[in-house]
Design goal:
single chain, alpha+beta, Beta-Lactamase, 4 domains, 12 helices, 12 strands, about 20% strand, Sig_transdc_His_kin-like_C
Length: about 450
């Protein structure tokens, strides 16, 4: 802006005003009435002109400051109208508005980019005012993980789900750690951390959560594939010594046949070698069969199946042997006609496995009972639950029941429940368990 020109014009007006005042003073001293009147009019005119000269600049500045106050940066000041000094001022105002709009546009773009990134990541994020509880910002995934609708104040959660509120919002998690939270239809494990930050005089809390159940399931599926590849390699390495021993025994027999005088065949050594090959082969065969049951489950033959048809198949297959053991079993379907897109042979295998486990769990009870129930929840997920009234599963065992080759049975292989979990993952479903010692167990299949 041309401040120098403005100052010169103002200084010139002040000089004229001073000169006029001096002239008026001289007129009064010499008692020249005509000059006194003319001098007074000139002084009045100069005062009004100087006032208007200064005022229009302050009016323009006040107009600009009002626009800034109300964040009206779209205002455009006419640079081609008005006095020259004001046009220079308007040019400066327009440059400021243009710069602020560019900064705002960049900030808006950065905000949009950040918002898109935070919406795409598989973590839930929320920031809220610690005093008022008003939500500053949250992404959709936060509500999806916790199965809650959109809300503007965290007190909404406190009134609807006080336990969830206490765990997530009312407790501080300075270091990231995993916790289990009970939702309406299931229990999930999440990784949570939070921090408090200050903006002016307001304190805000930022909470970050991640559904690690889903992540763990994906990682576990990949780990299975790697495990099978590694173990197949190990099996082949174990077969090599057997082949070598068999080759040695064969050569000994051939030499004894060709030159019986020079090469005496030691029957004890031959028998010991054959037994070694036999025992090792049987062990490897059992080992390979166990792994084969897992490696085969890679592709699905999906069909639309009525749950009632699935239950009928299982009931016809299992009920006679269960009744023979004096165990009461009940199959029940709640609600409308339920249909599933499944590989029926694999899901039958899962249910058979769960029912056999339920038999083992409750067979020692005075009135053993198993219930197989199907229903649909509010999310339109189909649930199949297998209940038993057995002794329940100890907590230390419960944490590991889906780990491959972990078993608490003397004759167990540790494959059954691991196989069930893999089958459910292939169906994009999941298997869950709830159990308390002395109260029985319930295994849930969620489709």
């Amino acid at each position: 802006m041309n401040y120098r020109g403005y100052i010169l014009r103002l200084f010139f007006r002040i000089l004229l005003l001073v000169a006029a005042i001096l002239g008026l003073t001289y007129s009064i001293y010499t008692e020249k009435t005509t000059y006194m009147v003319i001098g007074s009019l000139i002084i009045f005119y100069l005062i009004v002109d100087t006032y208007n000269f200064v005022k229009r600049r302050f009016v323009a500045m006040d107009d600009f400051f009002q626009a800034v106050k109300y964040r009206d940066f779209s205002r455009w000041f006419p640079e081609d109208r008005g006095p020259k000094d004001i046009r220079f001022l308007y040019t400066g105002f327009n440059e400021i508005n243009r710069t602020i709009k560019e900064i705002n546009a960049k900030n808006e773009a950065q905000y949009v980019y950040l918002q898109k990134i935070l919406e795409m990541v598989d973590i839930g994020i929320i920031a809220y005012n610690l005093e008022t509880g008003n939500v500053l910002w949250s992404n959709d995934y936060f509500g999806e993980i916790l199965d809650i609708p959109s809300f503007k104040n965290i007190r909404f959660i406190e009134s609807r789900k006080p336990k969830l509120f206490n765990t997530i919002f009312d407790t501080y998690h300075r270091e990231p750690h995993s916790i289990s939270i009970a939702l309406q239809n299931e229990s999930i494990k999440i990784l949570i951390s939070d921090t408090v930050f200050q903006v002016d005089e307001d304190a805000f809390k930022l909470i970050v959560i991640q559904d690690i159940d889903t992540t763990l399931n994906k990682n576990e599926s990949e780990s299975w594939k790697k495990l099978l590849s590694v173990m197949t390699h190990e099996i082949m390495n174990s077969i090599a010594p057997i082949s070598s021993l068999a080759d040695t025994l064969q050569k000994s027999v051939e030499l004894a046949i060709e030159h019986p005088q020079k090469n005496t065949l030691e029957l004890d050594d031959l028998n010991a070698g054959i037994k070694t090959v036999k025992n090792r082969s049987e062990g490897l065969l059992k080992f390979a069969k166990t792994y084969r049951s897992l490696s085969k489950v890679t592709n699905l033959n999906l069909q639309r199946i009525m749950v009632s048809e699935l239950f009928n198949n299982i009931q016809l297959l299992m009920e006679p042997s269960i009744k023979a053991k004096n165990i009461d079993i009940e199959f029940k379907i709640s609600g409308a006609r339920l249909e599933l897109d499944i590989d029926i042979h694999l899901i039958e295998q899962v249910l058979i496995n769960l029912i056999l486990n339920a038999i083992d769990a409750c067979i020692e009870e005075d009135a053993p009972k198993i219930k197989v129930l199907a229903s649909q929840n509010q999310n339109r997920d189909i649930l199949i639950k297998v209940y038993d009234n057995g002794l329940g599963i100890p907590e230390d065992i419960l944490e590991n029941i889906f780990v491959p080759f972990f078993t608490s049975k003397a004759t167990g292989s540790g494959i059954g429940l691991s196989l069930c979990k893999q089958i459910m993952l292939l169906h994009k479903g999941k298997i869950m368990v709830k159990s308390a010692e002395g109260e029985g167990s319930v295994f849930s299949l969620v489709f």
